[in-house]
Amino acid sequence: MSPVTEWRRTAAAAVALAREVGPQLTNPELAAALNAAGHTTGIGKQFNTTAACNLRYAYRIGSPALLTEGELTPRAVAGRLEVTMSTVHAWLTSGELAGRRSPTGRWCIPFPPEVEAACRARLAVSPHVHRDADGVDRRPGELSIAEVADRLAIKADVVYYWASRGYLPTRRGRAGRRWIDLTPELEAACHARIAGSYKLTEDVKAAHHTEGIAV
What we know:
The protein is mainly α. It is 47% helix and 6% strand.
């Protein structure tokens, strides 16, 4: 008796047809072509989308190109506009940016010059875009907001407040993330601010032995 892997294997003729037409067809179209030619799966059933996908994977049969001419992926759009992927997906969800779903479910975005110009115009007036971001990741010695908060034993919200008020110099790097060069002088000033704050609890202030201005 043949091993189960043999009698469940798709017929060679079905595989040959899939190799011939598969690279030009989506999985539903490939299933329809195999069924129309009278082929069945290795267990004698008609092909469906899942079976066609499995056949394509098992025999390394190519798929239609993801993008048509002039289309970009969300990642490519984000890179060209220097925005985050979440921004591009938000535009797709809201309908501000047109796109189509590929047979595999991935976004394909027509991106001619006029669409790019409209996106850049939207960014120019968006209150959510950090125009002071320099696109550089963390530099040596820099700390994140969370790391500064942990070092000073305070909540990150306090550090964010200081940054927004200009009390704590920060640099916006890639994707608008804030980085802080916490020099000894700057750290001492933070301890002074904490010790003199009327908004922080006494147990937090007690850990800071200098005096300074309020938060």
